[in-house]
Amino acid sequence: MDGQDALLTAEALAFLAALHRRFEPERQRRLQARRIRQSTFDAGALPDFRPDTAHIRAADWRVAPLPAALQDRRVEITGPVDPKMVINALNSGAKVYMADFEDSTSPTWANLVAGQQALRGAVAGTLEFTAPNGKHYAPKPFAEQAVLMVRPRGWHLDEKHVLVDGQPMSGSLFDAGLFAFHNARALAAKDRGPFFYLPKLESMEEAQLWNDVLDHVEAELKLPRGQIKATVLIETLPAAFEMEEILYALRDRIAGLNCGRWDYVFSYIKTFRRHRDKVLPERGQVTMTQPFLRAYSELLIQTCHRRGAHAMGGMAAQIPIANDTAANDAALAKVRADKLREVTAGHDGTWVAHPALIPLAQAVFDERMPGAHQKHLTREDVLVTRDDLITPPIGSITRAGFEGNVEVCVRYLAAWLDGNGCVPIHWLMEDAATAEIARAQLWQWLRAGDLYLDDGTPVDETLFERALMKLPSLASTDIPGASRINEAIGLLDRLTHADELEAFLTLPAYRRLD
Ligand SMILES: CC(=O)SCCNC(=O)CCNC(=O)[C@H](O)C(C)(C)COP(=O)(O)OP(=O)(O)OC[C@H]1O[C@@H](n2cnc3c(N)ncnc32)[C@H](O)[C@@H]1OP(=O)(O)O
Ligand SMILES: O=CC(=O)O
Ligand SMILES: [Mg+2]
């Protein structure tokens, strides 16, 4: 692969191998702990705040101060790591750019190598790119660029192209380790981190594992202790019960928590996959104004502000709609309402999926948040109980909602298998987190028994098969991943009929990649 040798030098490989040897056993223990905890939920237990860590929640402590670059995070753009996207995001006018190896990247070896190369070029100031249409891209001067953050893959994913002692290494350690190895000293020299976004954590022990990894990286690369800063996505239901503990485990380097709403909803479904009384309505009805999601975001704000950390909002899925002014206005109105809810509740910043949404999000935050952040809003009025976090909203499943889930799963899986981890489908941004909601719902709905669409049609095998049978014709269109549509149909069929809900759709899909 072009550029691979310059990245995977003997020194870089030795650095990665040391990370693997030191942290792989604990990663496996953490993954096993997830499975054990899930088996208790499957047997009827409910998540709750931990009695064994009550002393952490009760004690008086604050997180370490943050560098100047992390004070004002009002608008953060996220996106995959191909060179054009990296340059567009750095130049976008957002305060922060989260370069994403996770939900929006299909981890083909080519994507990972190109992404690491692009980020290395961005940090070194050498990145440029010419598109096939001849358009040339180069980052603006450093002072005008968004602050770079990197989101490595979650703990569950392996990197099968790098074997250490015959075992695939962790995707998290590969992404974060390789990025730090090549860029940490240059970033530290500019007081720009490195900064990471840490995805899909489920417990304080997983946060502790990240802290140990980042301590090790700092020691190996001779960086000051605490130089690397991390923002943790609270995007699993179990983690919502351990926000204080996660902040505490990373207290010398935590920059904030983020409401990763899409994975959070997925995690809710996964956690309660065997709980008939917790079945959620269709995806479109599970919005952030539903009480259980409002409770989650308000608890996150209160927790962060009490401890001196930023409370970041999340991603509205709407993107600009070309050639239809009315539809575009309606989509932007939804994004605006979402950002207004966030800033009013006390969030210190938000995410956008597309550069055209930056002015809109920025205007909402500028108007309501004159300072760099609003950590002074401690939201003492918020009182969130276990039941507030787990009580499902009332709603329905429409035929369009059911069929939409099937279509999104198939089209997203096809794109992902084809190397594209983020695609617009019906003018919504779809990535691994949004697609997971659709995939997990189908599995749960077909097993729930006695479940009906709002028009009285039983939610059953026939409904699923009919929805699936509409899709093979997509193979002859020009949508992203068209050539993998039939493979995606087969994969969704198997995932939906499996006795157990697969923990992540990217696990079986990754076996088919490359
Ligand atoms: C649940 C979560 O985890 S959310 C976080 C993960 N998801 C994301 O990060 C979403 C990132 N967004 C995207 O990938 C894209 O916006 C998509 C796939 C949704 C839509 O992409 P497109 O259909 O290509 O959008 P569109 O054609 O309008 O793009 C216009 C321009 O904006 C650029 N652009 C679009 N999104 C981004 C982005 N997120 N970052 C940087 N540039 C972007 C495009 O590269 C294109 O540039 P060009 O004019 O130089 O060619
Ligand atoms: O990563 C973000 C999410 O919403 O999931
Ligand atoms: Mg996510």
Automatic annotation (TrEMBL):
Domain (Malate synthase TIM barrel): residue spans on this chain: 147-391
PANTHER family linked to this entry: MALATE SYNTHASE, MALATE SYNTHASE 1-RELATED
EC number: 2.3.3.9
Name by which UniProt lists this protein: malate synthase
Gene that encodes the chain: mls
Keyword set, alphabetical order: Glyoxylate bypass, Transferase, Tricarboxylic acid cycle
Organism phylogeny: Bacteria, Pseudomonadati, Pseudomonadota, Gammaproteobacteria, Lysobacterales
Gene3D superfamilies, per database record: Malate synthase, domain 3, Malate synthase, domain III
Sequence ranges assigned to domain Malate synthase N-terminal in this UniProt record: 5-55
Catalysed conversion reaction: glyoxylate + acetyl-CoA + H2O = (S)-malate + CoA + H(+)
Residue intervals of the Malate synthase C-terminal domain: 397-513
Family: Belongs to the malate synthase family.
